[in-house]
Amino acid sequence: AAPADITYGDGPSTPAWAYNGSVPGPLIEVAQGDHLRVHFRNDLPDETTIHWHGVRLPAAMDGSVFVQSPVQPGASFEYEFDLKDSGLFWFHPHVVSDLQVQRGLYGTILVRGENEPEFDRELVVVLDDIRLLADGSIDEYPDDDGITNGREGNTLLFNGQVSPTLRAQPGETLRLRLVNTANGRFFNLKIAGHQLRVAGTDGGLIPIPYDVDSLPIAPGERYDVFVSLSGDVGDELAITTEPYDRGHGTDDNPSMPLATLSLEGSKVTGKPLPEDGPAAELFAEGGESFAVVLGEAFIGGEQKFTINGAVSPDVPDVMVPNGETRIIELQNDTEQEHPFHLHGFFFQTIARDGVPVPESERFNKDTIISPMMSTLTLAARFDEPGMWMYHCHILEHAERGMMGMVHVE
After folding, report:
1. CB–CB of 267/169 below 8 Å?
2. What is the reported pTM?
3. Positions in the chain whose pLDDT score sits under 70
4. Other residues' Cβ atoms within 10 Å of the Cβ of residue 348
5. Number of helices and strands (H, E) in the chain?
C-alpha cells in the first residue's frame, strides 16, 4: 500500500492510495483449498490493515483492529490462510475505512472451485465511485447528505475506468464476477436488451439460478452473473446503473452509464446458461437468537448510527460458544436500506418480516440488504473462535457507530 497518482477519465491525475500502484489493486486468482500467503508492506503515511471481505479464515488474519494491531508506516505483516470456499471475494482496510477505501485501497480475490459452469468469456468487474474536485483531488469529507446516506461520488468507475468500452463476440456467453466496493452507492446493474442470469452470490454458486432485468448490488455484495450476448457484429450494448430507491430521497436518481459492450468478430454459438448449481448445506434453524437493531440518532450534535441503541465501541459483545448456530434477528428501524456484513462467517436468510423463505433461496451470504423498516431472520454457524465484527457496509455509517462484535469463545 502506497501513495500513487491515478488518472480517472480525462481529468487531471488524482493523488490516491493504491495496492501495487493500481486502483483497483491486484486480482489474486487461486483455487479452492489453496494456502495463500500475502506479504503486505505499508508505505503509506498512516497506519492501516487488510480485511479479507467474505473469506472464512482465522480471526488473527481478519484485519479488523479488534484482532490485529494496525500495520504502522514502513512496517510489514504476513497474512496467510486457507481458501475454504470458491467465489469472488475482496480486500480493503479496516482503519478509517471510509477514507482509506475512498482513496483507492481495494482489490479482489477470485477462488476457483471444481465443476465451474461453462462460459465463453469472463470478466471480473469492480464497481466503485469517487468524488473528485476540479483539480483532480478527492473530496474526502462528506457533507450532511453523504453522512446520512453514505458518500456517493460524482465519477462512476468500472474496474477503475470511466465508461470503458469492452469487446466481445455476438452469441458469446459472458460471465461477470461483480463486486461493489463503493462507500455508499448502490449499483443497479443492467445490460441493454438482455436478461441477467444470477448463478452465484457472496458464498459462491447457488442451487437454482434466476433471471433478472437489472441487479441491485449493495456495497460489499458480490454476484456471479451469466448473460447470452444477442445482437450483431457492430452493435454496442450499454451497461448502466438504473434508478434504485434505497430510502431518504434516493428514488429520483437517474440512469447512469458504466461501460459499453462492443460486439466484434464473427457471431458464435455460446455455451448454455447454467440451469442449476450445487446443493446448499442448510444451517439449523433452532438454537438461541440475538437481536441486531439498526438505528439512527443525533448524539452531541453529530449524526450517529446505532446498533441496539448504542454506538460502537459501546455496543455490547454477543457471546457464542464455538461451533454453535445462532439466529440473528436483524431489525432495521430506519427509513433507508443498510447492507449488513458479518465478518468470518456466512449466514442464510430463513425469514423476511416473519414469512419463511423457501429452502431454495437459503444460500450463503456475508452481506445482505436490510430493507428499511423491516426484519430479516438469519441463521449463522459460528465455528471459528475469536472476535468477529459485524457492521453496516455503508462505510460512513460503520465509522460513525454502526458496528458490533461477536465473541466466539
Report:
1. yes
2. 0.97
3. none
4. 23
5. 3, 30
